[in-house]
């Protein structure tokens, strides 16, 4: 009798005998299925652990189609693990074991060469500033705070000249808290009822602190999100940090950002940061046209994650004694993340799968933790938070590296060609510099190098910027910067950090071209929030240019009419690339974009101002149609 018929019989007749019979049959089926699973060789089971959901489904399809399991598994392993030499395999049993051992040895060999002392310290220092991913419950709270900030007109009402500004700020803060309470009631009636029962916000201090912290943490993990509401949030928190405001509100809104390091420290699991496998588990997997190499890299990463989960989580010490189909197969399905999943909210996931298991292919278990307080889900959050940071660097720092490489490949500082970088006699109306080819080459090189260092340290700079913004003793003043009324506030911590970065770049590139003045807390960069927002535009400026340059050959050579057009107008694809690069390296770094030399010029901030100015004039360039053909839609990114 089928399951649907048994269920129908039980519901309609209500006979206990049928239910007992069904349960007895289910237990027998479970034992039979468990026995079948036990007959699978442990080596093959390890290989199945290393595959993701899509790959396991592929195996099942071929087995159900009549293929022999061992043969199918061998073919799948060959395809996904990238192993090519199968002629010398003595048996299927030895093959699986050798494949696992080889992969294990390769990973540890690679890591032993790269994961030296400096790299360990780098990961530890990075973990101190990388925010922890928000979980499912926190995401629900995030919707509340985003909804409240979207409808709030806080900055429009507060940042104006008025007699009693403190009272106006208190009213606005209470309005936001009231909106949050109303949203909380609609989200969870019982808990929301407690929030508004006495109309006393002080009693709900922890609730609102967590709300604001989650929103700040989410923004740092996803710079493309909360473009408007994040500024409102920080300006609100800036005001609540004032002593007189805290006395009126009777609670403090700000708490430190929860970082990976702080979370691991609270769980007694800091030893994870010294584990060489963490390097493999958190590295970004770049797209590769060779499918075998790509799948091998993804498999190595999944196995590293699985091994870390099995050794450091509290579940591994308790063991898993589940019986029936749910126990063994949950390792294949319940903890699997498909490679094909599309994270729409730009959580910067690398696209690799995750299989959680109490076993593992890695046999080096010398550092077993005795007191494990962290669960697999929490450990997974930490791993993927560090991975998010590496993906952030891939999408924000790598375009700068590519532009540096383009500069070195297409231009020689000592041998200028007919298409060079000289600004002498330049036709650009905005140019404020007068560099020759050699001087402009090194000016561009050091500017790009400085931007790369800023991107590499963005999480640290962001944390420092929030410290300056939310410092109780660091007051701001309203002032007209030429672009409206802004909060002008000093940023001593951020200024010191930027001085260190500039000093490092100066020692790296040698002689310094131009000014090394850093604008912070003046009309050019009013506060630390504007600084972070300004440098987050660098990848938005460079990524479309890199995309165009990398797409030109495929787009132009794929159409004979476009190829003729480019040949006649620009002299070919390579010359077209050089023309685009020369125009950007000249007029994107010419000191223009402002009314005077103090606001633009060659200072640290002025270099980015010039690049913005070049972007605003892209439509007037002769090569602009080429940008459109290569998929260009703008420099603003996604909203």
From TrEMBL:
Residues 127-320, 370-637 form the Non-canonical E2 ubiquitin-conjugating enzyme C-terminal domain. It holds the Pfam family DUF2009. This is Non-canonical E2 ubiquitin-conjugating enzyme C-terminal domain-containing protein. It comes from Cryptosporidium muris (strain RN66).
């Amino acid at each position: 009798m089928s399951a649907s018929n048994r269920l129908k019989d039980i519901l309609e007749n209500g006979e206990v005998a049928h239910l007992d019979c069904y349960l007895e049959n289910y237990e027998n089926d479970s034992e039979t299925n468990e026995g079948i699973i036990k007959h699978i060789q442990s080596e093959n089971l390890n290989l199945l652990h290393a595959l993701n959901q899509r790959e396991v489904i592929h195996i099942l399809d071929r087995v159900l189609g009549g293929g022999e399991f061992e043969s199918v598994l061998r073919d799948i392993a060959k395809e996904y693990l990238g192993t090519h030499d199968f002629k010398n395999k003595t048996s299927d049993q030895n093959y699986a074991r050798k494949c696992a051992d080889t992969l294990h040895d390769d990973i540890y060999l690679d890591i032993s060469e790269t994961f030296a002392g400096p790299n360990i310290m780098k990961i530890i220092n990075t973990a101190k500033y990388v925010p922890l991913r928000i979980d499912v419950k926190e995401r629900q709270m995030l919707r509340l705070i985003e909804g409240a900030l979207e409808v709030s007109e806080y900055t429009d009402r507060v940042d104006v000249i008025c007699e009693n500004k403190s009272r106006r700020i208190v009213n606005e803060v209470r309005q936001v808290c009231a909106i949050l309470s109303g949203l909380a009631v609609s989200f969870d009636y019982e808990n929301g009822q407690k929030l508004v029962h006495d109309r006393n916000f002080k009693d709900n201090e922890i609730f609102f602190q967590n709300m604001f912290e989650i929103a700040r943490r989410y923004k740092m993990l996803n710079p493309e999100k909360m473009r408007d509401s994040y500024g409102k949030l920080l300006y609100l928190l800036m005001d609540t940090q004032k002593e007189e405001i805290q006395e009126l509100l009777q609670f403090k809104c700000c708490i430190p950002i929860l970082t990976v390091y702080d979370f691991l420290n609270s769980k007694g699991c800091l030893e994870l940061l010294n584990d060489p496998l963490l390097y493999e588990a958190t590295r970004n997997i770049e797209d590769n046209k060779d499918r075998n190499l790509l799948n091998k890299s993804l498999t190595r990463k999944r196995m590293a994650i699985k091994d870390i989960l099995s050794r450091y989580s509290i579940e591994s010490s308790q063991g898993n004694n589940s019986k029936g189909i749910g126990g063994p197969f949950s390792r294949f399905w319940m903890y699997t993340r498909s490679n094909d999943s599309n994270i729409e909210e730009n959580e910067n996931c690398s696209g690799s799968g995750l299989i959680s298991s109490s076993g593992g292919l890695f046999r080096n278990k010398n550092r077993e933790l005795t007191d494990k307080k962290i669960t697999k889900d929490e450990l997974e959050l930490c791993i993927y938070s560090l991975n998010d940071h590496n993906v952030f660097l891939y999408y924000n720092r790598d375009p700068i590296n590519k532009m540096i490489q383009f500069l070195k490949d297409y231009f020689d500082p000592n041998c200028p060609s007919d298409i060079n970088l000289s600004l002498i006699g330049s036709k650009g109306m905005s140019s404020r510099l007068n560099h020759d080819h050699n001087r402009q080459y090194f000016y561009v090189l050091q500017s790009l190098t400085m931007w790369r260092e800023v991107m590499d340290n963005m999480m640290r700079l962001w944390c420092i910027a929030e410290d300056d913004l939310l410092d109780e003793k660091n007051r701001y003043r309203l002032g007209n910067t030429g672009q409206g009324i802004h909060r002008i506030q000093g940023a001593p911590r951020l200024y010191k950090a930027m001085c260190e970065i500039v000093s490092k770049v100066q020692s790296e590139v040698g002689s310094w071209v131009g000014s090394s003045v850093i604008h912070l807390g003046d009309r050019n960069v009013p506060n630390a929030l504007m600084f972070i927002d300004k440098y987050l535009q660098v990848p938005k400026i460079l990524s479309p240019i890199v995309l165009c340059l990398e797409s030109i050959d495929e787009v132009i050579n794929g159409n004979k009419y476009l190829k003729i057009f480019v040949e006649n107008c620009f002299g070919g694809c390579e010359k077209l690339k050089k023309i685009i690069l020369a125009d950007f390296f000249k007029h994107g770094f010419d000191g223009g974009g402002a009314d005077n030399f103090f606001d633009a010029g060659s200072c640290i901030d002025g270099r980015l101002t010039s690049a913005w100015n070049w972007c605003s004039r892209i439509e007037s360039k002769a090569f602009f149609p080429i940008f459109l053909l290569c998929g260009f839609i703008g420099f603003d990114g996604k909203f």
